[in-house]
Amino acid sequence: MSERETVAVNRRARHDYDIMETFDAGLVLTGTEIKSVRSHRADIRDAYAAVERGEAWLHNMHISPYEPGSRDNPSTRRTRKLLLHRREINRLIGRVVEKGLTIIPLKLYLERGYAKIELGLARGRRQWDKRQAIAEREAKREEQRALSPRRQADA
Questions:
Q1: Is the separation of the CB atoms in 34 and 115 below 8 Å?
Q2: Global pTM?
Q3: pLDDT tens-digit series, residues 78-131
Q4: Could you give the CA distance from residue 151 to residue 115 in angstroms, rounded to a whole number?
Q5: Strand ranges (E), the chain
Q6: What superfamily does domain 4-124 belong to in CATH?
Q7: Domain chopping of the chain, boundaries
Q8: Going by DSSP bridges, is the β-strand pair 4-9/17-27 parallel, antiparallel, or unpaired?
């Protein structure tokens, strides 16, 4: 197994939110859940994290049931505990209190056999912000095309 194997990526997150800061957290899973994650049967699109009673929790992440697991499979969208250092949790609590900040998962990956999740401290974008970001990206792409060595050789 490679050092870091990506299982799921939340592609909409960087479009819908401005990511201020990222954190890596461990994920507490049952035996059948980790087997499903290792077979890339997880989805983090609708998931979000919250700090409750001094602990970090991941809500609404979908992990498909492990077929041979039968009755031992837990609920597919159960709340799962995140493993963070106390200072990281305190920092998240302080930042989330600010208006409009939320914690969203960006990437689910396996590292040395353990399931980990990359969390982003994010502020939601409005519709016009999204359009502006797309326009900036397109302008940058056009600028790169104009400056590319192939274009200059043709001229």
A1: yes
A2: 0.75
A3: 899 999 999 999 988 888 887 778 899 999 999 998 999 999 998 887 777 678
A4: 45
A5: 4-9, 17-27, 42-43, 48-52, 55-59, 62-63, 80-83, 101-111, 114-124
A6: Small protein B (2.40.280.10)
A7: 4-124, 127-155
A8: unpaired
